[in-house]
Amino acid sequence: MPRYLWFRIAVVAVVIVVAGWYVYPPKQRINLGLDLQGGIHLVLGVDVDKAIENVTERTAADVRTALERKGIGAQVTRRTITGIQVQLTSPATFAAARAVIAEFPALAVGASDPAAGRLEANLTEPEVKRLRDFAVRQGLETIRNRVDQFGVAEPTIQRQGENRILIQLPGIQDPARAKALIGKTAVLEFKLLDEEADVQKAVQEGPPPGDEVLYGRRVDRTTKAETRVPYVVKKPVLLTGDLIQTAEVKISEVGEPYVSLTFNSQGARIFGQVTEQSVGKRLAIILDGSVNSAPVIRERIPSGQAQISGGFTADEARDLAIILRAGALPAPVQILEERTVGPSLGADSIRKGIVSTAGGALAVVLFMVIYYRLSGLVADVALLLNLLILLACMAGFGATLTLPGIAGIVLTIGMAVDTNILIFERIREEFRLGKTVRAAIDAGFRRAFTTVIDTHVTVVVSGVILYQFGTGPVKGFAVTLMIGIVASLFTAVFFTRLVFDLIYMGRRRLQALSI
Amino acid sequence: MLQIFVKTQYDFIGKRRWAYLLSIAVTLAGLAHIAWQGGLRYGIDFAGGTLVQVRFAQATTVDAVRKALDGVRLGDSVIQGFGDLQEYLIRVPAGSGSLEETSKRVNQGLRQAGLPGYEVRRLEFVGPQVGRDLQWQAVEAVLFGMAGILIYTAIRFDFRGGVAAIIALIHDVLVALAGISLTNREMSLPVLAALLTIVGYSINDTIVVFDRIREMRGRGIRKGESLADVVNAAINQTLSRTILTSLTVFLVVAVLYTFAGEVLRDFAFALLVGVVTGTYSSVFVAAPIVVDWENWRESRQRSGKKAVVKASTGR
Fold this sequence. Notes:
The complex is a heterodimer of chains A (515) and B (315).
Chain A: H1 5-23, H2 26-29, E1 31-32, H3 34-37, E2 39-46, H4 48-69, E3 74-78, E4 83-88, H5 94-102, E5 107-113, E6 118-123, H6 125-150, E7 156-160, E8 164-170, H7 175-183, E9 188-192, H8 199-205, E10 211-219, E11 226-234, E12 239-240, E13 244-251, E14 257-263, H9 265-277, E15 283-287, E16 290-293, E17 305-308, H10 314-326, E18 333-341, H11 343-397, E19 400-401, H12 403-432, H13 437-469, H14 472-504
Parallel strand pairs in A: 1-19, 10-16
Antiparallel strand pairs in A: 2-8, 2-18, 3-4, 4-6, 5-6, 7-8, 9-12, 9-15, 10-11, 13-14, 14-17, 15-16
Chain B: H1 16-36, H2 44-47, E1 49-56, H3 62-70, E2 78-82, E3 84-93, H4 99-112, E4 118-126, H5 128-156, H6 159-182, H7 189-201, H8 203-218, H9 227-259, H10 265-313
Antiparallel strand pairs in B: 1-3, 1-4, 2-3
Helix pairs in contact in B: 1-6, 3-4, 5-6, 5-7, 6-8, 6-10, 7-10, 8-9, 8-10, 9-10
C-alpha cells in the first residue's frame, strides 16, 4: 500500500473542487484584457517640470509680496525651473531681504551678491522631489475622478515608473472623447479683456505691455466651419478654477447646453469683487489658454454663479462639467503611448485563441495517447487538470487574460507534458534495465525529479523577468506561462504519481506496463 | 511500445567541428544580414510611430490602399496585408503628427478613394521616447534572463557547464534573430517575449543532457573511456526525451503559428526557430563545449607538467 494514499487523494480532490469553484462560471471569473474585449490603453507622461515651474512662479510672487510688506523694493523673477532671482532696488536692504527669504522653508538661498543687491534662491531638493511626486499623484487622482464620473466599467489607472500614468478603459465606444476628457489640463482662468487695445495691431505687432493675445474658436452654426478669433486680455489672473465647488450642465432657453458653475465661498467673494469693480467690461473665460467666451459683466454677481457657453454639443458640455468638477491637472500631460482595439477585433482574437488552444491541446493529447498509451492518457488527464488550475489561479489572482496570455496557455500545454515525458522515458529506461514495474515507476519518478525541477526553474526565471519588463499583453503571457509551469509540478508529478500508484497498487508481480 | 531513438550510438561529439562550423556560419549569416539591413526592423513598439489596422467589407489590394493614401501625405507610410485580402495594416513612422491627425488623414484618404466600406479595428500610437526606453529595457531583459540562467546552471552544475549552456543560449537567440531578419519580420514586443521564452526553455534540453553526464560521471568513468565517450553516451541515452519534449512544444507552437492569427505569427515563428535550435544546440553546442574545455584544460596541465619535467631533467 503506497504511503499516504488517502491523504493524497484528498489533496487532489480538494484542489479540483476549489479550482472548479474559482473558475465557475468562467465568463464572469476571467478578466479579459483590452486586446480581447476592445478598449483603449493610454500611457500619459506628466510634465512634472511644468508643475515645478508653476510652483516656482507662485513662490516668486509670494516672495515679492513678502518683500513689499516689509517695504523692500525689489524685482523678483523666475530664473530657472526651480530658481528665482531677487534684484533689490537698493543694496542696503540686502540683509533684510535675505531674512525675509529665509522664512520660506521651501527655499534655499544660493549665490548672492550683496554689493549689487542681487540674491538667488532655489527650491530645496526635498521640496522638488515632493513636488514631482505630488504632481503625478495628484494627476492620477484627478484623472481617476474624471474617469469615475465619466462612467467606465472597471478602469485601470496606475502610476507607471516615476512620472507616467497608465490608463486602461475597457469597452470604450468613443476613444477620442475619452482622451479629450482625460488629457485636458483644464486650467480655468478668468481675465479681463483689454477693450482699448487694437486687436489687429496686437496680433501683428505684439500686445501692449501687460496684455497678451489669446485665441478662441468660433463655430458657425450653419456651416459648422471653425474660425480662430483673437482676443487681447490683461495678464493678471482674477480667479481660477480651483475655487469651483460644483459644475453642471444646463440647457438654455434656445435649447443650447451650457455649463453652470458655482464657486465655493472664497471663490464667490472674489467673483463678487471682480464683477463689482468691472461692471460693463468683458470678462474672458479661459480654459487651457484658449478663450472660451468673453461675456459682458452686467452687474455684480454675489451668488458665485457663472456660466460657460460656447456652442457646445451635449456631450462636450457634459465632459466639460466633469472636468471642472474633478479639477485641473497639476501639470500638463502628454500621450506617450496609445492603443485602441475595436470590439470586433477582440472577438476575432478570442475565436482564434480558442481554436489555437483546442488545436494545441488536441495535438498533444493525441500524441501522448499514441506514444505512451495508458500512461499517456493519465498525462492527458493531468494536462486537463493543469488547465483547470491555471484558469482558477487567473480568476483567484484577478489576473487579466490577453491574446499573448492565450499563447502562454497553449505553450503551457506543450511544456507541461514535457515533465511527463521526462518521467515516462526514465521509467521505460529503468524497465529496460530489468526492474519490476513498481521499482521502475519508483525510480523513474525519483530520478527524473531533479531534472524536472531544473527545467521548471529556468522557465520561471525567464517568466519573472518577462513579467518585470513587459507591458499589458506581454505581461499576460508571462503570467499564464508561469502559472501553467508551476501547476504542472503538481499535475505532472504529484497527480500522475497518484494515478500510477492507484493503477499498479497491489499488483506486485505485474510484468506489463502500459507506457 | 512505440519508441524512437532507443540505444542509439550516433557519434555526435566526433562531428562537433562540423557542428561548430554550421552554427558559426548560420549566426554569422544572420548577423551579416542584420548589419546589411542596417539593424533589425523594429515594429512600432520599439521604433515609435502610428499603426492603423483596417478591415474592408470586401477584398481589395495593397496597391489600392496605397493609392488611396497617396493623396493625404502620410510620409513614409508602409501598407501591408494582414491575414487575408480584406485586412490591412497602415504604419506611419514616428514624427509625422499625432494619432488624431494620422487617423483623420487615413480616414479621409480611404473615404475619398471609393474603396469598399471599412472598419478601423486597431489604432496604436507609440511615442519615440517610449520606444527608445523599451529598446534599452529589452536588451536588459534578455541579458538579465541569461544572467539568471547562468547563475542557476553554474550553481546546479559547475561554472563550466553554466558557461557552455549560456553559449548555447546566445547561439539560440542569435539564430532566432537571424530567422526574424532573414524572413523580413519585425522585432516587436511579442517577439521579444518569444526570445525570453527561448532563453528559459531551450536550456531545458541542455539540462537533461548535463544531468545525465553528471549521473554517469558520478558512477565513475571506466578505464579507457574518455570524457568525449561519456558525453556522447549521455547525449545518445537522453536523445529520445530531448527530441520528444521539444516535439510537443513544437506541435503547439505550430498550431499557434497556423491558427492564432497575424498578431502572434511572428512570435510563433521566433519560437519555432528557437525550439528547433534549442534542441540542436544542446546536442551540438553545449555538450561539445564541455568536452573541448576539459580537453583544453587537460592538455594545458599536461604541457605544464612536461615543462616541469624538462626543467628538472635539464639541471
